[in-house]
Amino acid sequence: MLKMFSSLPRICATLALAIGCQQITLSAATPDQAAASLAQTALTNSGAMEILASLTTEIGPRLAGSAAEKRAAGWAVERFKKYGFDKVWTETFPLPHGWARGVEQAEITSPAPQPLTVTALGGSVATPLQGIEAEIALFKTYDELLAMPSNSLAGKIAVVTQPMIRAQDGAGYGALNKMRTAGPAEAARRGAVAYLLRSLGTDTHRVPHTGGTHYAADAPPIPAAALSVPDAEQLDRLVALGKPVRISLKLTPHDLGPITSQNVIAEIKGREKPDEIVLLGAHLDSWDLGTGAIDDGAGVAIVMAATKMIRDLPVPPRRTIRVVLFGSEEPGVIGGKAYAEVHQAELSHYVITAEPDLGQGPVYRFQTGVANPDEPTLQRIRATLLPLGVLPGDNSSHGESDVGPLAMQHVPAVTLELDATDYFDLHHTPDDTFDKVKPERINQSTAAYVAFTYLAAELAGDYRQPATAPAK
To answer: What is the DSSP string of 383-402?
Structure first.
């Protein structure tokens, strides 16, 4: 493994200078020690905060398909070129429908008139210009709504107030996601004229959480919005008093028609096996209420900072590292699906893939999704991650978000699980802003990513090969 260095003392000194770390010993020339040194440097100052500050300040919110998302793509191309990546390009793909937010107003009109705090779900249709006023049908759980027969909600506004459970791995969101994505269509099938849900969030602030919804061909599209958690609980209490509750709702979002989005792709060419690709992803788009710092500006900063550190080394790793900053994840992983389709023919050359899309971290667990989880290089990666506080996980990874379509096509995937305990306090809200990101947290996440990425690209791990059965 030391053949890559023509002069070990010289390269170690160069490596120390290149990554700005403490003096590296000769043993640091091994891949494991080089990865550990990169990680230690990242813990102090990975550069991720500077990248994130630039993205969220100079670009701001980046709604899928918008002019701001296109500016973000230009920003990313310029950054990758400045960092000296060997190849940088964009790939454009169509969006069937662009969407823009408008007026968002709601209030209880009876029996206790008062305003409600709401935000339209992404993709929602508008109410009539004068709005809608109707009695509500409130359900404490989504299953209660699904149990209602056809046409049982005719003329009513369906309201679901099921709370989301806080969990380190974000499992509470996965359990309730259909309440937002499929809820409006289910309410429409039962005759509802509009749909409100308690925000998919774990905070108690009077700040609603947006997020995408999807209409169905067999149900009319109805206006859909999220209530802040305190407002949903207010409705629970009011309905419990036993009197009919009426709400007025006005939403004026509009469809922009067919538009385009884009993926930004950058590569560090492998020195010995350039056709073998280690792929990292993150998504550039965000919802429009905040500045997309947590979702997914943090992921963008993590993968850009980690790969810049590797690019700054005097000798690149054996395999190619490819970074894809995906467009239009929020409307339904559209950029990830487009990428997988366009690159179908080369997927057999992909060694492994990973993506951070659950906030700033820290990374606390390393999950694999490979043919043989005991593959020797994975054991070395786990050993390097352990001092960072990253524990071994199981082999159930299917990749995060945009790289999920690659995993579905049998590309080996790992998940460096980010601690999401407080992620859904901020997710899809106006509070998703730069000041919520803590340097020590995003630096640790970057440290885990740079260690994993360097070793996956430098070592000879084969993550498609099943374990060999022991000889009898």
So the answer is: HHHGGGT-EE--S----SGG
How do residues 312-351 score in pLDDT, each as one tens digit?
A: 999 999 999 999 999 999 999 999 999 999 999 999 999 9
For the chain, give the percent of residues with pLDDT over 70: 93
Comparing CA positions, the residue from 266, 270, 267, 378 lying closest to residue 4 is 270
Supply the pLDDT for residue 472.
56
- Which residue's structure tokens are 């893939």? 353
With CA atoms as reference, report the closest residue to 338 among 415, 259, 262. Answer: 262
| SS3 of residue 150 by DSSP | coil
Rounded to a whole number of angstroms, the distance between the first and last alpha carbons of the chain is 33
The helix (H) or strand (E) run that includes residue 316 is: none
Please give the full DSSP string across 158-211, using - where no structure is assigned: EEE-PPPPP-TT-HHHHHHHHHHHTHHHHHHHTT-SEEEEE-S-S--SS-----
pLDDT tens-digit series, residues 394-452: 999 999 999 999 999 999 999 999 999 999 999 999 999 999 999 999 999 999 999 99
Candidates 307, 292, 291; CA nearest to 355 is: 307
CA distance 458 to 168: 31
The rounded radius of gyration (Å) of the Cα atoms in the chain is 24
Q: Do 280 and 355 contact (CB within 8 A), yes or no?
A: yes
Beta bridge partners of 137: 158
pLDDT at 29: 74
Q: How far apart are the C-alpha atoms of 428 and 212, rounded to whole Å?
A: 10
Q: What is the pLDDT of residue 95?
A: 95
Whose CA is closest to 163, among 153, 172, 151?
172
pLDDT tens for 393-404 read 999 999 999 999
Tens digit of pLDDT for each residue in 281-300? Answer: 999 999 999 999 999 999 99
Domains and CATH numbers, the chain: 2-97+258-458 (3.40.630.10), 102-252 (3.50.30.30)
Strand, coil or helix: 266: strand
Cis peptide bond prior to 31, omega within 30° of 0: no
